[in-house]
Fold this protein.
Amino acid sequence: MHMTTEMIIKPGRCIGCSTCALTCSLVHHGVFDLGRANIRVHRDDLAGVYELRFSSTCNGCKQCARVCPSGALQLVDIPSDEAKNAGEVTKR
Ligand code: SF4
Ligand code: SF4
């Protein structure tokens, strides 16, 4: 069975380390620059939680999820047949 890797986002687990954003910037621009990352880590001080926002320039490479230490960004393998079937159902 063929598998496909999907990214799952659980903002409630984020600890605000910005490792994801720094990695994105490094992989795509060769520099550590939060301003050039395709993911933004924003702290909602009132709610005391972090929000994760992906820009439209995110290409879905999933490198950010590979380095997240807290499980806020996770990679899971799902059968590609299921993904395909889900797509077919959506199209009908
Ligand atoms: S998926 Fe890739 S491009 Fe998108 S935010 Fe993560 S590292 Fe950056
Ligand atoms: S999503 Fe993960 S890597 Fe990114 S700031 Fe939150 S805990 Fe750190």
User: Anything to note?
Assistant: DSSP finds three helices and four strands in the chain. The first strand starts at residue 3 and ends at 9.
